[in-house]
Design brief:
The protein has 331 residues and is mainly alpha-helical. The protein has helices at 2-5, 25-33, 46-55, 59-79, 82-92, 96-104, 108-117, 119-126, 164-178, 183-190, 197-209, 214-225, 233-242, 249-261, 268-284, 289-292, 295-301, 304-310, 315-326. The protein has 3 domains: 1-133, no CATH class; 165-246, no CATH class; 250-326, no CATH class. 60% of the residues lie in helices and 0% in strands.
Length: 331
Amino acid sequence: MLGRATRLCPEIGKDRFRVFDAVNIFGVMSQFTEMKPVAVIPKISCEKLVQELTRTSDPRHHQAILPQLFARIQRKIRRANLAKREQLEAIAGLPLEHLLDDLRASQPSQLANWFRDRPDFASAIDLPDNRTMPVFISYHSDRLVAVQRGYGVAEDGSIYSTRPDEYLQLFQKFLADNLNLIPALMVAVQSPKDLTRAQLKELQMLLEENRFRESDLQGAWRDRKNEDIAASIIGFIRQAAIGDALIPYSDRVDRAVRKIMSSRSWTAPQRQLLERIGKQLKAETIVDREALDRGAFKTEYGGFVRLNRTFNGELLAVLESINEEIWQDMG
């Protein structure tokens, strides 16, 4: 089976195989079947091998280096995505289909000169496929010009605003312009207790696309008001849209759970679960039936059906009460 596995298959670019052994035959037979890798030092980099090649003229040394060097280049070429192939071809100056044959046909001294003329090739081979060689646009010394906080920074580094008050005003304007156009936004403002998990995700994605991330809003509020408040995105929406008090979300949850627990006489298991639900609300904002049928609620408590029995069939009503209390005016 190992012999079959090691057969080449250029059609699919095979460069590895796995052994699934249920009874440890592979371990017992390993002393007879173990195959040594071509690269004697598997972790040695291509750049290091090229350095060794260019430093010595000893044929015995070349015999040890070249198989490892060719194996690394071949492995990279087989796995390279389109961007990596284009990068390697640009550095090599010829198609990758012919590169390895040309290198193998060259004398060690010719190879050394080839790599000296292309100092970036070995570094490019060592880089992961999703990274490319940096292009230097300046060799001048760095100099600090200014330090400036940005809000709504995009992936390309562009800054939406450098003033916290302006950024918060832009957020308020965005909400005013879109409140009647986006149903999830309307629910968050008028009835946040009814906001579903899908609507919350939709809101988060929409706001991030428009550079209004929760972390940026928290930073702008802190810099503008000198208050470090870990409010949720729903809290920022309601504050900007209707002037609702901006309060840390964890404080809202703690207050809601305390009020529900004091509203009636609960059993010990019920009180324990109420506290656990409060912790989960802090972690993911919305706890619904779906949340209670996965993770720790499923493995430790048996999921929604068993939890609902603990609350005598009233668990959904309890969750609704907690969510309603979370967004009550805390003034």
